[in-house]
Structure formats: C-alpha cells, structure tokens
Amino acid sequence: MLMTILIAATMGQPGTVEARVAVARLDVVDRPADSGYVVATLTKGDAVRVRPGEAPVTGWLAIDPPGSVYCWVEAAALRRADPLRERPDAARVRTTTTIRSANPKAKLPGPPRGTLNPGDRVRVLDIPPLEVGESSPRRWAAVAPPTGRAYYVPAEAVEWAAPAEVEVRPTAFAAGGEDPELKRGDAMLLAETTAKPVEDWRLEPIRSAYEAFARQAEADPDRRRSVDGRLKQLEGLERAAAAAKGFVEAASKSRDLDASFARLERRIADAERERSRAFDAVGFVQPSAKMHDGRKLFALIGLKDGHVAAYLDVPPGLDALPLTARRVGVRGAARYDADLKARLITVRDLVDLEAKE
C-alpha cells in the first residue's frame, strides 16, 4: 500500500485510460464485489475507460459507465424541465428519491444505489418506462447514470491497449509530464498497482508503453529524461513484484500441514454456520397471474438474469405486496411443479434484504 501511495504522489492522479476486455464475456457490476448487480455485459475486445485514481478494493477496477448503462428512478419523483431553457431530455427531481441500478433484461428495477435530492438534474433516456404492480402500478423512468458514477469489472478480465504510435514534436513539450502518451502510461501503472496485490502485478504492457514513447522521443532530451525516470522507477516495481511473487510461492510451499488442517476445519465450521442462516432463495418479488390450489402466486425474479427463478406460495397472514420490487430472502419448502414448469416454494418466511442495507 505504501508503494501505491508513493506512485500516486509522484505521478499525480491521471484521468481515464483505455483498456480492452480480455475474456469472452465480462459482466459490469454496480459495486466492486461478486454480489454486485449486473448492469451490462461486454465481450472480448470491447473498450473500457479505466479510472486509475478510484481504486475500490483489491481485484477490481473502476470504469466509466459503458454506453448501454442506465438507471431507474420513480417517474413520480421527476419534473420535466422547460424545453425553452434546457435540453428536451432534461428533468429535475421533485422530491427525495432512490436511484436504482438497471439491467436491460430484468423485469424489475435493480437494487438501490444512492439518493437523488430535490433540484438535482437528470437526463431522461428514450427507453420505455417500467411499470411494476397490478392494481396501482409504480412507473419507473430510465435515466443516465449520475455524473461521476463508476462501475466495476474484475482487474484480471481486462488488458491494456497497445501503445499508440504518435509523432513527437519537441515544440509541443509540456513541462511536468503532460504528454498524453506519458499520462496514459502513468494511468496504466497506477491502475495496475492499486487494483492488485504486488505479486499479481502485470507490468510488461506498461514497460512496452514507456519504451515505445522513449523510442519516439529520441530527438527530445527533455522528453527522454522524463520517460527514463519512469523506466527507472518501473525497474524498482518489477523487482518488488518478482520478490513478492517468490515470497508467496515459497510461503505456499512451506505451509505447516497441521495449520492447513486447522484452517480447513474452521472453514467447514464457518460454512455450516452460514448454511444454517442461508435462505432457500433470494431475488425480487413480483405479483404474477399464476395460481396454485386456488391461491395467487408471486414470482421471484433472479438477481443476475432477470428471469423467474421460482414461484412463491405465500400463506395467509404473510403480506408480500409491500415487498414488490424489493430484494428479499425466502425460507420455505421448495419443489419442482410440473404445471408451472418451475420451482414452487411454500413460503415460511420473507426477509426484506434492502431494509438492512
């Protein structure tokens, strides 16, 4: 961590830097965790703009919202702006309201991810509104993500784009390392060293970027000194990464067998405790037209794909309507129902998970 702070201090906080998706399918999520809500899916080769100055947690990169990303806001909380004074898609918030993540394939708004206050501006998108509920449906409007909002991808799922071939002109030199390609290399370095532990740093693409710029800057002594200083610093980081990797490998090989068994036993005990507290299903509650034994069923929408994960047989005395469009944990007896062609859960308990966030 100290090394990361020193990098940021010496290089400043660069802007975004382009990277490419390195895996066949990459889910973009609304928070840096495996449990984050999927807001978009990218494919190999797609470009992303990484925000190296916003390192969330180890293993994740903050990125600019991809072009397809939007959010949901209750339409009743918005007031369309005066088209003579503001752009026609502008709106203002009338009353404090929650902004929720969106997945184009989901039938319900996603989890809450922040609050909008009266007077805040939003940009309403040309996307059909979402209506939730039957007797008194709630209407949701699609809006652009708030300014400055970041989304997240696993660090190992992206790779740095190849350095651009640019013509270097000595008269265009800006003191303090303001050259776009140098700033790009600095941003790559900061993102790499803040998103991963030292032993997992991949510094080869960054060295290639600096060396490419060094070759282009042969005729400019000031530029060459600037990039040489960065290459010298990079050598130190490469030595640190190699040493850390060697230490981790050695430590892994020399683990005490008794300690390994003790850790395994603790993990098994922890898993059993978690299992006892776990729910039979988790998702978003939505009314449905399906019936079972004369009772109307509720649908449980999956968190990841927006499809029906199960139908809920809610007993009298347990009111599920107030939980519509909210993320809940379900406890009960589950079985496959041939008529429904889906899982049917006889509900014993419904827990509002959003109330705890």
Question: Which keywords apply here?
Answer:
alpha+beta, 5-stranded mixed β-barrel, about 350 residues, about 30% strand, 5-stranded antiparallel beta sheet, OB fold (Dihydrolipoamide Acetyltransferase, E2P)
Q: Tell me about the largest β-sheet.
A: 5 strands, antiparallel
Q: What count of structural domains?
A: 3
SSE order in H/E notation? Answer: HEEEEEEEEEEEEEEEHHHHEEEEE
User: What is the molecular shape?
Assistant: flat
Report the structural category.
Answer: alpha+beta
Through-space gap between termini: 29 Å
Oligomer category: single chain
Strand order of the largest sheet: 10-9-6-13-12
Radius of gyration: 26 Å
CATH H level, superfamily name of the largest domain: SH3 Domains
Q: What is the β-strand count?
A: 20
Flag low-confidence runs.
Answer: 1-14, 164-177
CATH topology of the largest domain: SH3 type barrels
> What is the arithmetic mean of pLDDT?
80
